[in-house]
Amino acid sequence: MEAKLQELKKRLIEVNDLHASAALLYWDQSTYMPSGGAEARGRQLSTLSEIAHQKFTDDAIGKLLDDLRPYEESLPYDSDEASLIRVARRDYEHAVKMPASFVAEFSSHISLSYNAWTRARPDNDFASVLPYLEKTLELSRRKADFFPGYAHIADPLIADSDYGMEVASIRELFRGLREQLVPLVHQITDQPPADDSCLQQHYPVDQQIAFGLDVIKRLGYDFERGRQDMTHHPFMTKFSLGDVRITTRFKEDDLREALFSTIHESGHAMYEQGIRMDFEGTPIARGATSGVHESQSRLWENLVGRSRGFWQFFYPKLQATFPQQLGDVSLDAFYRAINKVERSLIRTDADEVTYNLHVIMRFDFELDLLEGRLAVRDLPDAWRERFTSDIGITPTDDRDGVLQDMHWYSDAIGGQFQGYTLGNIMSAQLMDAAVKANPAIPSEIQSGEFATLHGWLKENLYQHGAKFTASELMERVTGGALSTEPYVRYLRSKYGELYQF
Ligand code: ZN
Q: What is the 264 CA–ligand 1 centroid distance (Å)?
């Protein structure tokens, strides 16, 4: 059995090497590649992913997984070997269930749809993407049907990024959260808005970048195994456990952009850097799910990076970096500015309190569309109506409404958004557990010390990679099921203090 496991590992690592090479090409495309390289790069990426797919779906891998089943069953569920075989089998079954002809049809449709969207959004022209979106919905339903036995048609689509989570439980969680958030947004936005003009001054880019790098070095991002470069849409990428990179972007007239996206991506990266090195190249050498991943970017960005304690330490340094801009701005004013809550149209610009309402709305629309309760052509009106009732303002056009996110134009309808809010919910529950285990964490944050928190996350979460599902992790780490209670308590306490209610 040992020999078969080694053979499986060897084959999986080869597949991983191809994916990692593709990731490097993609990183280069998004950072330094001249535009003239675009066409060939697209071809190279698809060649690599085709070879990786062929290698991975080879019958020999299926045979090894079958042969290894009794061995896997003889081992404890949480052993490294059983986990590796289990996760590899899950990935394998996912890859072989969809026929190659469907994968090709889906991807060629999506590239047309994405193209149409890049023109439709600036033109505010939903009608031009309508036929594409209708086809995407049909293809999304067909995709789900390759995975029969689901309780809800969105379940297999959700499993793509949040394996182990299902509509029934997510819907329940989100409904409860929405009931708490809608009145909270009203309580806050009925008051005069925070003044964030101090953030919208001229901030030279070089100093912004240097400050951000200094912050994430202190948080624990390892520059021996990572680096940061500039891009249009920030992301984290990994070529191996020894090379986990982040990208960022900046605005010279808004201090928030580079700083918080840098902290966000470093949260994703610290998760990957914390995975056990002996998992290298295998299917368990990655974050558990998109929700768990997002819990880490959000924990560092919001629960740490937008906390008062964090800025008690860093604000004097920020003032010293930008004395002209911030010399006369108090810590209190700065803290209010970076936590400004407002009714706004764009999800990616939304604050902590309103953000999840943007997400839950999209999640509900995905279910309505897949269930056939909402027609694609009625989506813009449904969007305006729901937006008005949840967030309290009405988008005046589709550009800032249903056309704003690329997700439905570049992938399936279903499973695209839940991870963002699941991540927020988990982030508070995990932080609670960390502080319970180490009550000194909040005061350490005030002194710019993050080793205890980082070490706890590494020990309890990061090192396991993809061995466990999100629910298994939450049970193991926090001793309870996923719950919105810590997150709502966190928001109420932080914003109750800021807005006195
Ligand atoms: Zn993220």
A: 6
